[in-house]
Amino acid sequence: MEREPASAAPPHGTVLVIDDDAQIVDIVSALLKLHGYPVATAADGAEALQQLKRHPLPCLILLDVMMPNMDGWQFRAELLKDATLASIPVVVTSGISAAYNLKGHLQSVAYLEKPFNEEQLMELVRRYCG
Questions:
Q1: For the chain, which residues score pLDDT lower than 70?
Q2: Which of 16, 49, 102, 109 is within CB 3.0–4.6 Å of 58 for a Cys-Cys bond?
Q3: Cα dihedral sign for 79, 82, 85, 91?
């Protein structure tokens, strides 16, 4: 009986993209996949928390701030309550230029203003996901 080869693990960790704008999610997901990064997505913080409970932890979270149901503030507050989840690097993304000040308040590793530059995004992803 022939055995099938074991599937190789992806060369990079998964990036979790949390944003309620489907177009942004599609574009960012396609870009990350093009560069060989597995992607998980969520439309709000509540959906993202459910994913974090069911799947291996991502190497990086791209977090929109303004979302329905559970926004970026609420999501990050929940993450910070759990030492394991709090250790996941978070990049805050927002279309509000004043949101740069949120970086420190949300304890994120970086801030990207929408629309963000592809190179800036990929530099951060490579830094935290290999």
A1: 1-11, 97-105
A2: 16
A3: positive
Torsions phi, psi for 120 (to 5 deg): -60, -45
pLDDT at 98: 56
Span 74-101, pLDDT tens digits: 999 999 999 999 999 999 988 776 555 5
Give, as one character, the DSSP assignment of residue 47.
H
pTM given for the model: 0.86
CATH assignment of 19-129, among 3.40.50.2300, 3.40.50.300, 3.40.50.1820, 3.40.630.30: 3.40.50.2300
CA dihedral 102, 66, 38, 56 (to 10 degrees): 80
Q: Which two tokens stand for residue 108?
A: 């994120």
Q: Could you tell me the two tokens for 118?
A: 């592809």
Which residues are CB-contacts of 67 (< 8 A; sequence separation ≥ 6)?
18, 19, 20, 43, 44, 45
